[in-house]
Structures are given as structure tokens and as C-alpha cells.
């Protein structure tokens, strides 16, 4: 059913800077980290489609578990003043940037 990977995401320690770093990790490292994970949160499983639209890198996620079917489009920007070009072929229901209840951390709460 396609390709799967384990990813680790680290957010900026500075709350004033919106920066995240994602990296692929191997299954043994994932299992070690999983044992140390905060029990108030669960892993998010998602189907991710990567594409470029008007020279902007985009990630289209469909959550599998928890919250099956929920969909999010993330646009990677190089600067805070960069204009976003949304794909015309993809219907956008809501802009949820900055809304806590749509953050991946919030969605991973048990």
C-alpha cells in the first residue's frame, strides 16, 4: 500500500519563531522514542502527498488515526511575508493556521 516512514518532528524552542524540523528515523529508533513518549499523546498516522504548486512546496495530509479522514494542506514558506498560492484544483474549506485545535499536537492528545 505505498511507502511508509517514521518521522520525528522538532519544534523551535523559541515560541516567537515558527520553525519545525522533520527528519526520517529508522524503526528501532522510533520504538525507543515511543517508550519515552508522553502518555497524554498518541502517534498520528497519516497519508501524505507531497507536491509543488507555483514553486511552493506543499504537504497534503489525510489523517488515518486518530481522526480518520481529516485533511490538512501545509504550505512550506521561506519567509513570513511570502505570498501563498493555493492550488486552484483543491477545494479549501477553512484557513486554520494558528488555530490550536487544528495543530498536530492538539490532534494527538488522548
Question: Could you walk me through the main structural features you see in this protein, from its secondary elements to its overall organization?
Answer:
It is a single chain. By secondary structure, this protein is mainly beta. The chain is built from two helices and five strands, in the order ββαβββα. It has a three-stranded antiparallel β-sheet, with no helix packed on it. The chain has a two-stranded antiparallel sheet with strand order 1-2. The longest helix has 9 residues, at 27-35.
Summarize the structure.
The protein has 110 residues and is mainly β. It has helices at residues 27-35, 104-107; strands at 6-11, 20-25, 45-53, 56-65, 71-76.
Succession of helices and strands: EEHEEEH
Structure annotation, total helices: 2
Helix content: 10-25%
Unreliable runs: none
Content of β-strand: 25-35%
How would you sum up the major sheet?
A: 3 strands, antiparallel
Rg from Cα: 15 Å
Number of strands: 5
What is the CA–CA distance across the termini?
Answer: 27 Å
Attribute tags:
12% helix; mainly beta; 5 strands
Question: What is the strand and helix layout of this fold?
Answer:
Blueprint: E1 6-11, E2 20-25, H1 27-35, E3 45-53, E4 56-65, E5 71-76, H2 104-107
Antiparallel strand pairs: 1-2, 3-4, 4-5
